[in-house]
């Protein structure tokens, strides 16, 4: 369990992390979200012990990170932003080096390397210098070094940044397969990544926590949750009748041929009555669907409020 209490980080007069409180339990896969400069990397660096807090406390399994850093660091795997590694080493040399630093010797060291190479699928590039690898393989090498000691806590700073869709999928699958009894904290700018991989979403803005809940709760707090969106064939017709339908509270024009109909919360779904109206009016539509919620919409409103 990670307990973060009143965590503050100042750089001169600038407050990058501003009184953060957070508890993360085993089994939590936390998507750590926030705009550029929100304080995500700084927080992650403090949890991994790379950066000392200005004030506040981080406890890992009840132990203070400030008082027992070496003991605690053994429990943590960290993939820093951009996954830096020693570029002129081959993948195998680098993994031997990391395994040694982590205190493994002889047979156990070789077994750890073999396991991690299989898990992250590095077999085909083992003898290539890291600097010559594609971004996707570099990121996998970064992941391999982060998990070689089978840590209880995995901190991944933008693990899929810059990867192509196939590589993103592979890295996400890997994270999901890892995480049964572990704590995983992933910072990302990709909101869909949170619904794909995480069971908890934490959003920070200006160093402060502005949301903490499940990805579903995040979607449900969107103004578009349960809205019915209609895509018309061509430009939208006169839709004044829509506003008069029972339960409709608002019509939001998304573009020249798309509208979202927002209903009162007491209405579970507006879909049947909007469908009837579409037929009655003879409107030509391309598609009509219930929205689960727009993550970018929630993200913008939460992080703008804080910035304002
Ligand atoms: N060593 C430092 N010295 C001064 N300011 C710093 C330092 N490290 C970070 N900052 C500032 O602290 C703020 C938070 O930075 P941080 O890297 O934690 O943000 P982030 O949420 O990870 O952003 P991004 O999504 O862009 O990676 C930024 O304004 C950054 O410029």
Automatic annotation (TrEMBL):
Keyword Membrane on entry: no
Residue stretches making up the ABC transporter domain: 2-231
The keyword RNA-binding is annotated on this UniProt entry: no
GO molecular function: ATP binding; ATP hydrolysis activity
UniProt KW keywords: ATP-binding, Nucleotide-binding, Transport
Pfam families: ABC_tran
SUPFAM superfamilies: P-loop containing nucleoside triphosphate hydrolases (SSF52540)
SMART domains, per database record: AAA (SM00382)
The family this protein is said to belong to: Belongs to the ABC transporter superfamily.
UniProt name for this protein: ABC transporter
Upper taxonomic lineage: Bacteria, Pseudomonadati, Pseudomonadota, Gammaproteobacteria, Alteromonadales
């Amino acid at each position: 369990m990670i307990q973060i209490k009143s965590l503050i980080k100042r750089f001169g007069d600038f407050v990058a992390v501003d009184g953060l409180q957070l508890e993360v339990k085993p089994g939590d896969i936390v998507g750590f979200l926030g705009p550029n400069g929100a304080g995500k990397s700084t927080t992650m660096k403090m949890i991994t012990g790379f950066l000392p807090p200005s004030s506040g406390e981080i406890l890992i399994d009840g132990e203070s990170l400030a008082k027992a850093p070496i003991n605690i660091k053994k429990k943590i795997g960290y993939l820093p932003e951009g996954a830096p590694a020693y570029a002129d080493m081959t993948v195998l040399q680098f993994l031997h080096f990391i395994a040694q630093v982590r205190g493994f010797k002889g047979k156990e060291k070789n077994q750890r390397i073999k396991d991690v190479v299989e898990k992250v699928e590095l077999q085909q590039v083992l003898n290539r210098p890291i600097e010559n690898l594609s971004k996707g393989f570099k990121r996998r090498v970064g992941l391999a070094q982060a998990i070689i000691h089978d840590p209880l806590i995995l901190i991944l700073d933008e693990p899929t940044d810059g990867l192509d869709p196939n590589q993103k999928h592979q890295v996400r699958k890997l994270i999901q397969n890892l995480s049964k009894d572990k704590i995983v904290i992933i910072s990302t700018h990709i909101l869909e990544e949170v619904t794909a991989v995480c069971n908890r979403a934490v959003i920070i803005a200006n160093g402060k926590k502005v949301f903490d809940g499940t990805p579903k709760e995040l979607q449900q707090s969107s103004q578009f949750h349960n809205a019915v969106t209609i895509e018309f064939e061509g430009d939208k017709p006169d839709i004044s009748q829509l506003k008069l339908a029972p339960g409709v509270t608002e019509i939001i024009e998304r573009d020249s041929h798309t509208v979202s109909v927002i209903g009162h919360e007491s209405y579970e779904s507006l879909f049947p009555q909007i469908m009837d109206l579409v037929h009655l009016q003879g409107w030509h539509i391309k598609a009509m669907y219930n929205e689960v919620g727009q993550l970018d919409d929630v993200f913008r409103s939460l992080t703008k409020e804080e910035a304002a």
